[in-house]
Each structure stands twice: as structure tokens, then as C-alpha cells.
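Running log. JK asked me to keep both predictions on one page so they can be read side by side. First protein, sequence followed by its C-alpha cells:
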Amino acid sequence: MADQQADAAGAETLDKASAPLPPDALIIVPVRGMALFPGTVLPIALARPRSVLAAQRAIREQKPVGIVMQRNAEVEDPLPVDLHRMGTVANIVRYITAPDGTHHLVCQGDQRFRVVEYLNGWPFFVAETVRIPESTPSSDEIEARFVHLKRQAIEAIQLLPQAPNELLATIEGMTSPGALADLVATFMDATPDEKQEILETVDIGARIQRVSRLLAHRIEILRLSQEIGRETKASLDARNREVLLREQMAAIQRQLGDTDEGKTAEIAELEKAISNAQMPKEVEDQARKELRRLQRMPEAAGEYGMVRTYLDWLVELPWTLPEEAPIDIATARRILDEDHFGLEKVKRRIIEYLAVRKLAPGGKAPILCFVGPPGVGKTSLGQSIARAMNRKFVRVSLGGVHDEAEIRGHRRTYIGALPGNIIQAIRKAGARNCVMMLDEIDKLGAGIQGDPSSALLEVLDPEQNNTFRDNYLAVPFDLSRVVFIATANMLDTIPGPLRDRMEIISLPGYTASEKLQIARRYLVPRQLEANGLKPDQVKIDDEALRTIIQHYTREAGVRNLEREIGRVLRQAAMRVAEGEKGPIAITAGDLAGILGPPPFEDEVAMRTSVPGVATGLAWTPVGGDILFIEATATPGGGRLILTGQLGEVMRESAQAALSIVKNRAAAYGIDPARFEKTDIHIHVPAGATPKDGPSAGVAMFMALVSLMTNRNVRNDTAMTGEISLRGLVLPVGGIKEKVVAAHRAGIRRVMLPARNRKDFEDIPEEVRQQLTFVWLERVDEAAAAALEPQPSSEGAASSQSVMRSG
């Protein structure tokens, strides 16, 4: 039944396809994505049954067909409204049925037409149409446009990679402007909609103008494409040439037996290391450039090792910033207390510093500079900061450095060139955010090789060190995340611009009680371990430690104290090694037999037991110290004799002191005529040590007053201060260090300039409690406070004997 219905439907369709056509009707073949222009030949593929029936009917009746483009190419079964209203009448040149069952038409466009009305009654499109004749207007404008279009078309064909010569000859021989526009539109790379617009443009002038405008755009694209193609070809040719040359070089080396598989592996290893180093782009480009040089260079070349060393430095430096652990303030405080006894103000400032780094890790933190005498713990404070921040610690010693290249590195033009100490320390630490201690920054020198302190200005400037350029590396390296800490014994030798970049933190010398605690907590356990002893084998009591501190060492720090403790424990270690049983107890009475007689004694009472001797206070690079000023008088003509290797400023202080005493002679009961018949000799012992500065002015004045009045200066009193000719006591520096030294030497009273009261808070609390302070405005107050009330007969006799011996 179904077969019968299908046969009936097929017969009905065949009958409709064979129905006669009106005389002026045209069979319409809809196409997708193409437009046929008059005068051109194009193949058309027929896939829809309706189109196949239309083509077969036209062939049977030897009639032309109308080629019309669909508005939407995706519509499979279009209706009349889906087709454009203008198309091209085409003659069928050939009809082909392929072996796979597809149908193809080869059509030649003849003339434009416009659809008036579609007719019903056929299984394909049939329409009543109006044919549009091609006009041939003649004007200068059209002629000019025609010539310009022909020139454009020839240029476009010449830009094509493989343009057919026949097409070029055809275009050159054309005489019809409309035909030229249709031919160019056919072969031009334009969209179907653009071609349809050209097809629907009947006016010749407008059509040529539209084609010319589209063709100009395509010519520009062809030019750019051709230029890009040439550049790509040149790049590929250069690369191919390099590959070919490398292959030829490898073949030559194989023929000569000069192949080196080890070098190839070395180059590959370096290339992998460069890729893994995560360098900045500028640095990576430089590294790869040097790697290419190394690859072309024979191993026997003298520069081969230099380039290889340079690449090793680049790949081993830590270019990336490691993940930073958060700073625990409580842990930092515990670490500082474990590692250091005392130094409360210093530790508080370090905790503040770490707190700021925790709250603003990306900020520009100040550069700390620890200033103090040797042995007070400056370097170990830096190590404690590194532990508290959980960062690597590295130390750079600057003592005696006098070559700028030690900081910035040597240029690679020199044999044996290396980076500077800063980059070397970064490589040693293996981290770009390490804690770097610049030790002994006050001992930098300068010579003909440059000034290293000036090179440090860039290193320690947070605004510049993010692009620090070492002469050896010749590429920028970021130092902004390095925590710099400097140490110094004195500030005077640090250049001003360098000192301005650092925050100065002063570390005073230790008091006797602080030394005792440090020795008990740190030094004794460390020396026990160093000498192979256990805590239960040797016991050293506190009195023995106090004796070592007071009579066997005289220093601001604790280095000599640790050495003396080590000597004592080595003696005990010898006894243990000899087989002595039981814990060995070391008391103060045993020290003389182990360490010998005490090298330091209390000189204050002895030296101030006669008139003319005063105890001054001095500041040295290794801390404070006491200074004795001795004066004596001999018959003469009023000369002032100064000895003890005194500097110019100290000599002037002595002359000023003598002038004040002469001016106030009547007030102190001194005969003024005595100065004209007496030579006064001022001597400062330890003559081999140079001495200078104005702070001994008060002590010199008191020595002269004591001498001329024959009254002793109190032996428990030390003094410091500069004097003026008006008798004023002027402020001086180093108050904290001087007072600590006086306390260490057994002084109980200290006379200081009143204008130094601001430094009182810097003095350790323990020292303040055990000393009596006398604040001086004028020298008269010093004389009233320091001279003993009445001269002793013994002292007077001694003074007279000194004068007679003089």
C-alpha cells in the first residue's frame, strides 16, 4: 500500500515537472553563499531535489536558468521570500552527474534580471522576470574610474602568490567598464553579501566605485600579508641557516675528532638552570646571551672559564623572594632574653623594630647600627635578630677594606674578577631576605682604589638598593628585602652621609654585677663545653668570678673575662685528665696560683694621696676609662711643661686651666708671685698612648689647684668636663661610658657638667644607685666639692719632697 502511494506521488511530481512553462517565465535555481555575474563562468553544485529538477527541465528544453542567491544560507528549503529579488540569467554550458550521485552545473552568466512574481504549479521555482540590459554610458569620470580599476586589478593580481597569467591578460584586454567590474567582483575576496550588492548595482559608475573601494581594502591586506610573509621567511631562513651551520660545524668536529659530549651536557645543564632560576627578564636575556657565547666558544679558549664562572654566579643567586614566616614578638623577646643579659633599652628598640617589620613587611625599615666597645654583644645581637625573624644570617667584615671593588665587585675584564662582598654574602646565605651584618663599618679605609664607604651609600639607601648593580654581574639585583645591621666601635670615623642612613643604637659597657650574671649564665657553660668538662666536674663560685672581673680584667665587654675563665677551667681540665676525683671547686683564693698575681690594682687611692693629682674620665674606642692628671712645681721662670703625648686640644685645655688658676689665685690663697718663680709640669701617665680632647679641663684645673694649695683631691672622686676662661664647665660626650668606667674602677663620686644632665637617664640603673653625682656649673664648685678640707701633714711633706726632687 505504501509503495503504491509513493509511486503515485512520484508520478504526480513528474507530471508537474513536465507541465508547459509560460513563454516569458524563467526557471529559478537558488544558490547559497555565491553570486554569479554576467560574462563569467562558474560551477554550481546541486544538492536539493528541487534544484536538480529545475536544471534537468532547462536542459531538456534548452532554456537558460536564473541564478538567485538565498538571503540566509542556512535555510534548507527556501521560500520565495528567502531569495534575493535580483539574479543573473545563465546559460548551462555543461551538466555533470558524479559517481557519488551529486549533480553539477557549469553556467555562464549572461544578463541581470529582476523577479517580478513567482509562479505556482511546478516542483521548482518559476518566476516572471524583467531582464536588465547593460548600459554603456560614456563620460570622462567613468573612463577615469575604469582605468583606475584596471590598474588596481593588475596590482592585486601581481600581489597574489601564484596569479594566472591568462587572468592578467584578460583584464588588460577588457574595454567594457561594466564587464571589468563584474569580472573583478567575481574573483575578488569579498563576502557573498558584498558581491550581491555589486550585482544589484545597475549604474556603471556606482558599480565601478564600489568595486574599486573593496579592491583597495583587499590590496592593502595583500601588501601587509606579503610583508609579513617576507619577514617570516627571513626569520626562518636565518634559523635554518644557523641550524645548517651548526650541523656543518658538528660534522667538521666529528671529522677532526674534536667532539665533546661533556660540553654539550654542560650547556644543556646550564640552560636548564637558567630556566629554573626565575630571573628577571633583563637578567635572563643577559644569561642566555652569555650561554650562546659559551656554546660557540672552544673549551681551550681563555675566556671560556670566565664566562662559565659568570653563568654559575647568575644561576646560583637567589632571584626569587622566599615565603617569609610571620614574626612572633613573644618569641623574639624570649630569644633576646636568652641570648643577652641586660641591655634592656637596646632589646626594647629591637622589639620595636621587629614589631614594625611585622605590621609593615613591605615598608622601608631603618638600618640599625650598633655602636659600642668590643665584647658587648653587637654581633650576637644581629644573630638573635635573625633567629627572631627566622631568616638566614650572614656576616660581612668591613674592617680594613679600602678597595671599592670589595663592595661593588670587579669588572669582568680582569682575570680572577669576582662579585663584591655584598653579592657574595647573598649567595652564601641563599636567600634574598637574609639578615646581613656589616661588621666594623667604622674601620673602612680609602685609597687609590676608591672609597668603599661611598659605595655603601647605595647599598644602605632603601630608595636605591632595589636596583643595586654589581660591577661583576652588570645586571641589577634587588637588595631592598635584605635586613642590614651595622656594627661600629666609634662614630667619629664613619662618614657623615653613611652615618645619616643608619639609626644609631649605643651599647654601653657592662657593670660588674652584669658581668657576673653573664659569666654565670653564658661564659662558664660555654667554656666548660669548649674544654670538654661537665657541669658536675668543676664548680667555680661567684666570689672567684668577682675577683676575675675586678682584678684580672679591665674592659667594657666580656671577651677578656671569657679568656680568663677559660684559663681557670683548663687548669681544672688538666686535673680531671690526671684522674682527680670529685667535683673540683675553684674559689677566689685559688686564682693567684692559676692566673698569677692580679695585673690590675686600685690605683686611685695611691695616686691621689699627694697634692697635684686628680682623677679624670676619658672615652676611648674600647669604652670609658679613668685618666690621672699629675702636676708638680719646680723652681723656674713660670714655664708650663706638658708631657704624655697630648694632642693640641688637650694642651690648650691645660693652658686654659693654668690661666684660670692664676686669675683666681687670691680666692684660693695662692701667692700670685709664686707663678713667676715656678715652672709647672703637667703629665698624663701612659705616655705611649696618644691623648686628645677638651674633656680633661676640669681634672687639669683641679690638679693645679691641688698643687698650688697643697690640698689633696678626694681619692673617691673622678671628674670630666671642658672649661672656659670664664670658669664655666661645658658639656662633653661619652658620659655613659665614662661613668660606667668610674664605677668599674671603684670610684664613688663623679663630677659632671650640669649641662650633661640630659645624659643621666642613659646611665645604667645599678650604676646610678651606687654613685654620687655632683653637677658642675663653674670650676669653683669643683674645687669646693673635690678638695679635702685640710691638707694632711703627711701629704704636705710628700708634696715638699716632690718639689725638692724636681
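And the second, directly underneath as requested:
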Amino acid sequence: MARALAMVFCTLVLLSGCAESVSPPQTQALPTPAQAPVRFNEDVRPILEAKCLACHGCYDAPCQLKMEYADGLIRGAHPKAVYDGGRLENQATTRLGIDADTEQEWRSLGFYSVLARGDQARSLFENMIRLGKRHAFAPNSKLPEDIELGLARSNQCVSNENFSDYAADHPYEGMPLAVADLTDDEYATLTGWLNQGAAISPLVIETSAREQADIDRWESWLNGDSRRQKLLSRWLYEHLYLAHLYFRDAGADTRFFELVRSHTAPGQPVEIIATRRPNDAPDGPLYYRLRPVTGSIVHKRHITFAFGPEQFERTRNLFEATDWQAQSLPDYSPASRANPFATFAAIPAKARYQFMLDNAEYFTRTFIRGPVCRGQIATDVIRDHFWAVFHDPEDDLFITDQDYRQSVTSLLALPGQGTDLLDLGENWFRYKDKRNRYTKLRNEAYRNAYPEGASLGQIWDGDGNNTNALLTIFRHHDNASVQRGLIGQVPLTSWWMDYPLFERTYYQLVVNFDVFGTVAHQAQTRLYFDLIRNGGEQNYLRLIPPGERNRVLQRWYQGTGNLKLDFSYASMENTAPSQVPYATSAHNEELGARLLLEFHQLNAERDDPINRCGGSDCGRKDQPEWIQQADQHLSVLAATRAEFLPAIRYLPDVTFLRVWNEQGDRTVYTLIRDRAHSNVAFMFGEDLRYQPDKDRLTVYPGIIGSYPNFMFDVPASQLELFTSQLQALKAEEQERFDRIVSLWGVRRTHPEFWDTLHDITRWQREHQPLQAGIFDINRFNNL
């Protein structure tokens, strides 16, 4: 080992005097297209999953060219982006598998073919991969600065007729874009398939007898005839329509299904009800149906939910425990959509809340990782690292006090139904005032109901065994992630959510959010989420001693944030006592420590010896010795502020780190940069509130994030040197960091880029088979 370290050190010395240059790609010969018959599902689909889906999946696929379903290739591309923060009118919805069925219907919606040749010698698809294969970047080199990458890239959605102009202007921007190219075999297979007519065979999935029994059980119950069942099924559908449902965990072979609304009854082919939102009027017969997920699994959209026999009985028991009745069924009007508490008032509130608590990680992921969390404006309302806990249903007044529930329900309506920019200001002030009046009534009610104040016992403990009770949220600048357990050091802020907060967040950011909506709709959604965050924070501060809460709150809302405290948010409840004892004046830090102590058994799998190491022995004791040593080496980077560890400033938001030993075993970590801000109370001007010296690094043993910004690949024998080189970095030493990247980094141009990325996916499939999916590299940096 010492010899290996010495060799690497010599390598660093040799590199220390060499400045890295960027050379233009070299032109290379093109392989001959395959002559043997090429099949789509067996030969082409694996290549698309390996080299194309890392960019062409979900709503933000460039030019709307989505490839996780075969229909996406048939549909083709569109010049308009789905995400547009400036449009004044609603855009037509273009959801694959929902809004059109045939190629002709997609053409009528403005999509153009990427497979047809027309009058050209080649299709657009072939022209793009041909351009990408023609020019090879130097192995592991930095890309030329004039190649625009990331979310700021202006996609060139050219038709085949205009391809020659594109190729002249962007000669090094073929597909896959600015990344290690297709292998010769992959190129030959794809071009052979295209030359043979690009036939696409539908992927037919046959459900097993066991799966069909599960489907029949759920569909029979969900489509019951009573008003009570119709109301309940509507609520369940609105809460599960994003889920990838599974009946039984079969590991890597688990099959996933989705809950949809159909005009056709069970036993007939599904005829999708294609409404803009899941709570829009169905306009015809309505049945709830289950259908298989037939496309490739893309990590960012893969939010799983157990739906087997055990969950069926649990769901029925929750909602049928009392003899409640629905006297009438609500309509689908804007008023009904805006207030789910009034719309579903007949369903026992405790059952609704408990269903969400049982699956809190799923619901939090839908609004943290879902469609709204794309782009900096959407996510800058939250901190980069915080914890979330939940009110115990037995102590949530909305659950336990019917009079209180009725008195506040009308104040819980949500904005965003209007689309007119001229009405934005009026709508915002109206809903802000409603929310603040609700907060005032809530404070008074809790003060009266609990004169001794809030206590840790009022936090839901997962009924002793449900690890959904404790969550950690990470924001990665323009996207975010959720993980069970209290991860990392005590964060600056935390949320304590009750049922009204949890349900409002879900409806505001998921059910009622229209990704194709106007700037007015998106702004109302974003602004109200700011109030929701503040509500979760203020509720958490009820555990801090009276007289100290405003001091802590002002620390969270420094600088311009004080303007929001004065003019936008309801006043902090600062007089009711707290039942939490304190031994220090560092109340927030001590409260976080008490959470860790109080819920230690529930949080045992998240003891986090890497980020919360109290000594020199920081490895996980349940891991092999070589992994324990890797933990120890990486712990020196964890939880240190950037002013003392300048290397943090060079790292992007999410970095995957693969570590492997001489026996070929490997493990994976995620290095998460937690950026610090004076406050997160405004939609714009984040750079003005950024505090880079206070950034920290969370080292997570496993996968967090759907969008890796970079990868390092380090032999275990060199990990100590790797971490020591990062520790030794000083500010303004970019060239030294570049040399670290050249030695251990996996740049977009690395010959092993795809193999490393896919091996990390395989590692997750081995350790978390239900969560694994194809990662997105649209945000992969050019370090």
C-alpha cells in the first residue's frame, strides 16, 4: 500500500508543473452499419438505455425527445420546452402515453420525426449520432468552453432539413452530447437498424396470475358504487397517480404499475382520461385502473409505493374503521381543487393523515423530487440541508378537535388556479392573508389546548417502527432529494409538519401544479411554498424556549429575510412555554441533538458515524474493514466549513464517488455540497444571499440524487491520498484541483465514463433494488 501511495504521489509531482490544455476533438472513421437483422427491444433498446436515456428522459428531455418509452422515438421532437418560467398562456400538454396515441396525433401537436428520412439521405437520429461518432474528444479531457452544457443550454431543436446548418455551427455537438461516444458496435447496431427501416416493436408485458389477482383486488375495491367509496377512491387516486406501485418486492426483478383514470371498466383495455391535472373533471365515465409501467426506469421519476396485500388491508382498515358517510360528492371546480380539506371533509382526517404518515418518504419525494423541483427558481425556497419531522396524529388539533377543524378549513385554500398575470398580485395577497389568519388561530388553539407547551412527545415516533417518521432533505441547487433518517450534522433549520402543512404542500406542489402552466400559476405556487416552509419552521421553533424563538428565527432570516418576517409571515408565537429542557444557550443545536437522542432507536440505521463522528474511529461497524477505513478517510472532509476546507468550493452539488479494492469489491458514496445562504425567502437574487464560507460537505454512504454533477473513481489504497490532496487545497488553486480531477476524476470524455456511471447504477440495484434507475447527466459538470 505504501508503494502504491508513493507512486501516486510521484504522479502528482510530475503533474504539478503541467497546465492542462483543451485540444479539439480528432476526426475518426465511422464503423460500417450492421448488415444482420437488428431487433428493437433486444438490440436497440439496451443502447438507448445505456447512452441516450441519461439525457432524454422525463419532462426536461432536450427538445421533448423522450426515449424511456418506445413511443417517444415515434413521437419525435418539439421546438418548445416544457419548462418555461415566462409564458403568459397555458401550453398544450404533451405527456407521453397520455395526450396522444398515434404518430399523426403527435404531428398535429407540433412534433416532428427524428426517424424519417424524407428527401434526405439519413434521418435526423442518424445524422446526430454520426456527428457525435465522427469527432472523438481526447480521453478524460476538459471540453471546450464554447460547448454549452447544463440547464442554461439553449437546445437547438433542428429538423432534419436544417441539420447541415447545425453541424456547421456545432461540429462537436453530435449525440450523445459532449460525452464519451458510442462504441463501434453500438454505432453499427443503431445505424443498421435505421437503414433497415427503424421498425419499433411495442414492448408487451403480460401480467402473471398473481399480479392479476392483485390488480383485480384493488380495481374492484376502488371502483365501488357507494358515494363513500367514490369519494375515497378520488382522494387515493390524487395521492398515488405519480407512484410506481409494486405488489411484492422481488428485488431487481420487481414489476411496477401505475394507477390511472380510464373511461373503460376493469377487464377492458385502458382508455386514459387525459385531463390537465389529476383533479380535473373526467368528462365521461370514470374508472380507476392499474396498468404496467412499460418503459425504462428513470431514477428521477421513480418514486415507489408498496401496493401489495398487506397495504390493501392497511388501507381498508384505516378508512373503514369508522362508519363515516359521504352525503354528496364534490365537483371538480376550481374551488374544489383549491381546498382539499373542504373537498374531502367527509373522509376522517385521522385516516387521511395516517395514510400520508405511513408513507411520508413517498409523499415528500413527490413534491421535493417531482416536476416542480426543476430549476433554481423552484427550489431556492428551501435550505440545502434540513430535517423534517411530523406531528403525532393524537396531538394534531386538526385531527382531534372537530370545532377547530371546521373553523380553519376555509382558510386552508391554495392559490394557483388562476393563470392571468394581472391577477397575480391580488391573488397572492388574498391567500397570504388567509394563511396568516390561519396561523394566528392555530397558535391560539395550541396555546389553549397545551398550556404547558410543545414537547418532543408530540412528534410522531413512527408508532415505534416506521422509519418514515424522520426525513432529511437535500437541495442540490436546481433539484432536491429526500432520504429517511436524520442525516448529517444538526442543520440550521428543520420543519415540524402537521396534517394541514403536509397536505397543503402536496396539493400545492404536486396535484395542483401544472408544469405546462403560465408564469402567474408558477409564481403563485412558488410564493405559497415560501409560506409553507415558514410554517414548518415556526412550528418547529415552538420547541425552543419562549423569548428565544424570534432570535433563532432572525438568524434563519438574516439580511433581506427580515423584510419577509415583518411584512409577509405571521408573527412567531413567542410566549407559550416549551416542555423541552435545555442545558445550553445554543438552543437550535441542542434541540437537534435531543431529536437524535429521543429517536435513536428509530434512527439507528442513520447513526451517521461519518458526518457525526465524535472521535477518531468513524467507520460503520457493520461494514468490512476496508469500507470502515474508507469511511474514516472520508470523515475528515465531512461537516467542515468551506472557510477551513476550501476544496468544498471546487466541488459541485452532487458528486458520486466509487471506491474499490484489489479484490474487485466496490462501494459508493455521495459527496453533497450544502450551500449556505443568509435566507431563502426570495424568488430571485440567490447569489446576493449566498455565504460560500459557510458551505459544508455531507458524505453519504450510498446514493443521494438523480443528477450527478461529477464522479470520482478512487482505489481504496489511494483514498487517503485523495482526501489529503483535497484537504491541502487552498483558495485560488484551480490548477491543483484540475490535476486531482485528471488523476481520479471521471470527466464526460473519460473512456470509462459510461461503465462507471452504469456500475454505480448496478451498485444501487444490488443494495436498493426498489430505488434504482437510470441517472440523468444533463447537469454533469465540465470540471
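Observation for JK regarding the second prediction: Residues 1-19 have pLDDT under 50 and may be disordered.
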